[in-house]
Amino acid sequence: MPVRPVISGVGSPDALGQALAGAQYLASEPLATAAYLALALGKPLLLEGAPGVGKTEAAVALGAVLSRRIVRLQCYEGIDAAAALYEWNYPRQMLAIRQAGEGHLNLYADEFLLERPLLEALRAPDDCLLLIDEIDRSDHEFEAFLLEFLSDFQISIPETGTIRAARAPVVVLTSNRTRDLHEALRRRCVYHWIDYPDPALEAEIVMARASTVARSTADAVVASVNLLRAEPLAKPPGVAETIEWAEAATLLNSQGAAWPAAFRRAIGVALKDQDDLTYMAQRFDAVLPGEAA
Q: Domain map of the chain by residue range?
């Protein structure tokens, strides 16, 4: 297995962590290490965690560090190989047939091929980062189809032949763990579980990503969000909701809303399920921040 200890100028987990911070993503040391090892070993990175912990953001930040565009394959129930690999542009082929008349026409030339994310990544492995988002939403059949792709980084097009990547592209898979992934898929990846950040790190994330939030507001919102996550909610707030709640409450406060009323009025930014709002209605005073700034 070829090992590349330095990738795009990044030569260690610490260096990658610092580079990610420069891309406004504050990664924990274990995450930076897993991402670095995936790059060095040329293996896909599998990120699992609850919705909203920053899995997709981690992939986007990694793409920024490596100066690669993101080629995203959003998985869903029923996704098939055609949606992931390629399709033939039948309307264009029909038009070309009419224009060609009796002349020669190659119906399987590149001009009639519609690239989908996997083929696009194979053809430009040095320019892109392939993000296979929410793989747990796909069917087991599609997950099995991905095994060959992630092993050999090649696909076969019956009409034209096999296309193999000149080198392994950078691949990040994310999963919300709504179902267990196949063991064979896990073996092909470097794995990391992303948990909610600890309060100190989450407050730093708020300060790095929000535009006008005071540190005291960030600390208050983070403390409140952690109390909410301890409740049996259907959709507990993620990191993105923490940032947006702090931003929204700060905006209302700047327009005259007092603390903690500003937090209560902006609760729809943090909780986005009616059952959760109903459940918390009588408990808000216990979890809402008090004076924040």
A: 13-81+114-194, 199-286
- Write the DSSP assignment of 148-201 as a string of letters: HHHHH-EEEETTTEEEE-SSPPEEEEEE--SSPPPHHHHHTSEEEEPPPPPHHH
- Of residues 241, 46, 42, 35, the one with CA closest to residue 134: 46
Average pLDDT, the chain: 91
Predicted confidence (pLDDT) per residue in 205-225, tens digit = 999 988 889 999 999 999 999
What digits encode the pLDDT tens for the residues 29-54? Answer: 999 999 999 999 999 999 999 998 99
List residues bridging with 157 in a β-sheet: 161
The conformation of residue 6, written as its DSSP 8-state character, comes to: -
Residue 48: strand, helix, or coil: strand
Domain covering 13-81+114-194: architecture: 3-Layer(aba) Sandwich (3.40)
User: pLDDT at position 135, please?
Assistant: 96
The DSSP 8-state label assigned to residue 26 in this structure reads -
The tokens for 254 are: 């700047």
SS3 state at 244: helix
List the one residue out of 33, 4, 17 whose CA is nearest residue 65.
17
d(CA 179, CA 138): 10
The contacts of residue 51 (CB under 8 Å, 6+ apart) are: 176, 235, 238
Task: Tell me the per-residue pLDDT of 103-128, one tens digit each, with 9 for 90 and over.
Answer: 888 888 889 999 999 999 999 999 99
Question: What pLDDT, on the 0 to 100 scale, is given for residue 1?
Answer: 67
